[in-house]
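Example 9 (inverse folding). The structure is encoded as follows.
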């Protein structure tokens, strides 16, 4: 699973706002949620978005993507245990 897939899964996870370049209000919703929740998952979403920006600029490498995937998997496993 690459970082794009991981970030998509995390961004679209139930209860989380997703950011869309086509609709800036979703970014504002995500920022408001971040201020409210301050959860590890929300912080992970921010890291995933940064990785996606790197992909767009062709700056990301496999080494950049692996930590993102590992962190997302760990975060999702933790979230499932919490539920």
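The amino acid assigned to each position is listed next.
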């Amino acid at each position: 699973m690459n970082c794009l897939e991981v970030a998509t899964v995390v961004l679209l996870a139930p209860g989380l706002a997703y950011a869309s370049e086509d609709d800036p209000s979703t970014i504002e919703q995500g920022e408001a949620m971040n201020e409210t929740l301050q959860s590890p998952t929300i912080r992970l979403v921010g890291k995933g978005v940064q990785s996606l920006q790197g992909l767009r600029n062709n700056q990301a490498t496999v080494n950049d993507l692996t930590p993102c995937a590992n962190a997302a998997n760990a975060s999702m496993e933790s979230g499932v245990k919490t539920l």
